[in-house]
């Protein structure tokens, strides 16, 4: 994206280095916010659903165990 943007920067007064940085920042923050929102909803779901929480815990113990951290 950034490479294509930079190639076209001279073709329009609206395509500036500042605008490119702002757009890249927007992409970065949007990606982080999506992940954060998903994790918040997952935590709320498990907090309100004991059966699902127990099922998740059982699967984590089977797959990861207690001797190591998840990869």
What would your notes on this structure say?
By secondary structure, this protein is an all-alpha fold. It has one domain (2-63). Helix content is 75%, strand content 0%. It contains three helices and no strands.
Notable traits:
71 residues, mainly alpha, 3 helices, iron ion binding, oxidoreductase, Cyt_P450_E_grp-I
Task: Report the β-strand fraction as a percent range.
Answer: under 5%
Rg, Cα atoms, Å: 21 Å
Distance between the termini: 30 Å
- Strand pairing plus helix content: what structural class? mainly alpha
DSSP helical segment count: 3
- Based on CA inertia axes, which overall geometry fits? elongated
Mean pLDDT figure:
90
Low-confidence stretches: none
Tell how many strands the DSSP assignment holds: 0
Count of individual domains:
1
- Estimate the helix proportion, in percent: over 70%
The ordered H/E elements are HHH
Major sheet size, sense and barrel closure: none
Family: Belongs to the cytochrome P450 family.
Keywords: Monooxygenase, Oxidoreductase
Protein name: Cytochrome P450
GO molecular function, one term: monooxygenase activity
Which helices and strands occur, and which strands form pairs?
Blueprint: H1 2-8, H2 17-48, H3 50-63
Helix pairs in contact: 2-3
Task: Describe the structure in brief.
Helices cover 75% and strands 0% of the residues.
